[in-house]
Amino acid sequence: MEVGIASYGHTKYGVLEEDTPDLIKKVMDDCMNNVENGISPEEIDRIIISCVDNAFSEQHQTGTLGWEYLGNPDAFGFKVESACVSGSVAVYRGKKMIESGEAENVLVVGFEKMNKFSTDKVTEFLTHGSSPEERKYGVTQPGAYALLINLYAQKYDVTEEDWAEISVKNHENALRNPWAHFHKEITKEGVMDSRIIADPIRLFHCSTVSDGAASLLLSANPQEYTDTPVYIRGMGVGHDYLSVADREDPTFLLCSKRAADQAYEQAGKSPEDVDVAEVHDAFTPVEPLCYEAVGFAEKGEGAKLVREGTVMFDGSLPINTSGGLKAKGHPVGATHVGTMVEMYLQLRGEAGERQVPDPETALIEGHGGTGSVAVVSVLGR
């Protein structure tokens, strides 16, 4: 059985007035209303909510809240969490429920309400996704990424100019995306002159604190609800150690490779088949490592795809057409539901100004905990 996507909902990312209940209800309503051939609440069997930290949402029982908003007493809802990749884990769980016969239609909702808190407090909350040892010694998410990026830069050919080009690329892509948090051009020089956050990570390498929500309708029979469904051809999940220092090779995202290998095998595809992709650029210097983990480049050669223009919007493999986490935004629980919405629209030819020419196969790579857990998805028409 191939599970398909039949509808979606999506808010703008940014500093939003809507609170947690409003965000959840809005994208649920949008997803139901966007079903081209119509659907009733009674046809939804499960609701899966992705939210990383209840401290952000100030709301436990978000699964039950979603159930209330749906209006089908025979459905049930629950929340999942897996750091930055929580949204893809929610989709993965929904897909498995459909494949097992437990459900026919699953509504997946990802959200995060982060801007009620200061940047320092958000940073503190996000360290909850790190290892106990890293937290004990005050290692933040930027600090852990800086460790692996420094090691990578010592080992392979990559420069500050490469990292800056990625930030510029993703901001240019976000200009085409009405949902993006940032609609602002930046320059390579501006990136390289921005202040250091955790050496070598600079301010303009970092994704921002965003509010937002996104949703998807997964179905065993998506053709009942839309004439142009998109199918989840393959999904894989992989892990590595929580602490960067414990990994056999901190310069390689082994979790993402493990997940990608599974996804390609299930889909009967290879990296060469991919036409468009979204990868996890929470800090843009990690983007070349994502390319390598999913097989777009050999180890240590990810930056070549930037220099050669391969991953630019008009390149042969456009990556992060949405603007990526860097410029579209990173409302953590919503992030990888939103990336799947992006690929859904690309494959249907409905991505507007950011549409790439006639893609048939799309890939999403997401990882959390600085590379301790990953989900990779391969989508097709």
UniProtKB/TrEMBL annotation:
Record SUPFAM superfamilies: Thiolase-like (SSF53901)
Membrane-spanning segments: none
All copies of domain Thiolase N-terminal, residue ranges: 18-219
Molecular function (Gene Ontology), one example: acyltransferase activity, transferring groups other than amino-acyl groups
Record GO biological process: isoprenoid biosynthetic process
Keywords for the protein's UniProt record, in alphabetical order: Isoprene biosynthesis
CDD domains per the UniProt record, alphabetical: SCP-x_thiolase
A Pfam entry, by short name: Thiolase_N
Keyword Glycosyltransferase among record annotations: no
Keyword Metal-binding appears in the UniProt entry: no
Start and end residues of each Thiolase C-terminal domain: 236-381
Gene3D superfamilies: 3.40.47.10
Entry protein name: Acetyl-CoA acetyltransferase
Source organism of this protein record: candidate division MSBL1 archaeon SCGC-AAA261O19
